[in-house]
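Need a sequence for this fold. Nothing fancy.
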């Protein structure tokens, strides 16, 4: 990536250009006019530079941070390029008619996302259809609704949907206007004195850092996986009845320990809260108000003595009129203007990758490492927020590619891990820093196989 393009991408993300970053190659890598590989590469590079600064504080002498745009683009389809025993894993929602774009009575397209059974059931109930309805039936039902009425009605039943908007429409929407007023990362002091047993390492900067990962799907789990690559002890906790996407679990599980916890069982919840109070970093990926029901929100944990970094990742952000709406990668694309031809007669085209999910994971990891650095400097506990829509806004600000070059594609070096589910071929961290040991010390394991303890 040439210097002017790198500067444009970093400035679009609200970051300053740093020395010692080498990004090789440039978009287009994937078949999309948006610079998703360029943006992911810059986000990955920022994680490396943040880790390098920590190492330098304790006598390390880190060299350049290196990322290739082709590898960064590959990370945005990480679960798809992964192989288990030589085979790709089936796409969970490939044949799910409740996940798709449908046209409303006013001619607008809406993206419905019933990706988990409960979400599909809510959509079916709202539209008066059976859960096993076909796409043609769903299309007919949706065609009787005004798009804005349907979008709000889905939100009212705690379902997932979004009208497919242009960038200009989103910027003038009450929540979109707010998203575009935020920085890529919202970082602030928590108002309490920091307390941590961890100190950085010169070669593996996050070695010994305790990270409690209370996230699911892709963005949050990717942030935990990235922290683990720099040495963090990441404990991922999931309830037994929380739905998941098996390919995502394997892809984002590298470097982590897994532990079960039924949040509705008092004894298990008490054990989880004690574990949380012993963490240096907590990353949660549920909508505002959800973890508060279990005393796992920042205010409750701070009141009981948690004094580290509390990080939250969501679809739409943690304040504003849409902050409590559930969302997925496709909905962040839909609202933000990343879909092509949202006002045309043809079905709008989605990005061929999970660019906002994975890139938000890298952005969050960078923000957490930077918060740790700041915390060690000023002694104040930190809060970090990121969202899929903030990342989508970054991609939009970066602008469409000014080239007619065909996509180059990628051929990344794959790692092989012997796991309990078989031999997994997968991407590595896709970022290197001279003098630092970047990689995972644990293989991906199934959910709930470990112990809820540090």
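Here you go.
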């Amino acid at each position: 990536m040439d210097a002017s393009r790198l500067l444009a991408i970093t400035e679009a993300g609200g970051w300053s250009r740093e020395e010692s970053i080498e990004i090789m190659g440039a978009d287009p890598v994937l078949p999309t006019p948006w610079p998703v590989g360029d943006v992911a590469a810059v986000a990955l590079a920022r994680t490396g530079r943040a880790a390098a600064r920590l190492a330098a504080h304790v006598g390390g002498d880190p060299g350049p941070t290196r990322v290739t745009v082709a590898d960064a683009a590959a990370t945005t389809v990480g679960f798809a390029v992964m192989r288990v025993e030589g085979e790709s894993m089936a796409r969970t929602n490939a044949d799910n008619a409740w996940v798709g774009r449908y046209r409303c009575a006013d001619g607008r397209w809406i993206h419905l996302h019933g990706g988990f059974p409960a979400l599909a059931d809510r959509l079916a109930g709202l539209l008066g259809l059976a859960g096993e309805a076909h796409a043609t039936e769903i299309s007919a039902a949706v065609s009787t609704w005004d798009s804005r009425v349907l979008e709000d009605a889905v939100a009212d039943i705690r379902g997932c949907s979004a009208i497919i908007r242009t960038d200009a429409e989103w910027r003038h929407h009450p929540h979109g206007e707010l998203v575009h007023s935020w920085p890529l990362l919202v970082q602030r002091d928590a108002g309490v004195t920091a307390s941590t047993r961890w100190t950085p390492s010169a070669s593996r900067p996050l070695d010994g850092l305790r990270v409690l990962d209370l996230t699911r799907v892709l963005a949050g789990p990717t942030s935990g996986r990235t922290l683990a690559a720099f040495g963090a002890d990441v404990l991922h906790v999931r309830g037994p009845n929380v739905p998941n996407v098996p390919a995502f679990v394997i892809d984002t599980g590298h470097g982590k320990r897994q532990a079960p916890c039924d949040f509705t069982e008092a004894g298990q919840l008490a054990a989880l809260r004690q574990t949380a109070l012993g963490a240096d970093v907590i990353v949660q990926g549920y909508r505002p108000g959800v973890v508060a029901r279990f005393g796992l929100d920042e205010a409750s944990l701070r009141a009981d003595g948690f004094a580290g970094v509390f990080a939250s990742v969501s679809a739409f952000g943690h304040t504003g009129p849409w902050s409590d709406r559930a969302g997925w990668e496709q909905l962040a694309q839909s609202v933000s203007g990343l879909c092509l031809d949202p006002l045309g007669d043809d079905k709008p085209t989605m990005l061929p990758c999970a660019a906002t999910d994975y890139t938000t994971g890298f952005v969050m990891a960078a923000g957490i490492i930077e918060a740790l650095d700041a915390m060690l400097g000023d002694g104040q506990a930190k809060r970090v927020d990121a969202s899929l829509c903030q990342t989508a806004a970054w991609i939009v600000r970066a602008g469409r590619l000014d080239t007619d070059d065909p996509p180059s594609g990628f051929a990344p070096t794959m790692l092989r891990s012997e796991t309990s589910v078989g031999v997994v071929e997968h991407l590595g961290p896709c970022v290197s820093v001279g003098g630092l040991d970047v990689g995972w010390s644990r293989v991906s394991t199934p959910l709930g196989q470990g112990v809820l303890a540090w």
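For context: The chain has 16 helices and 16 strands.
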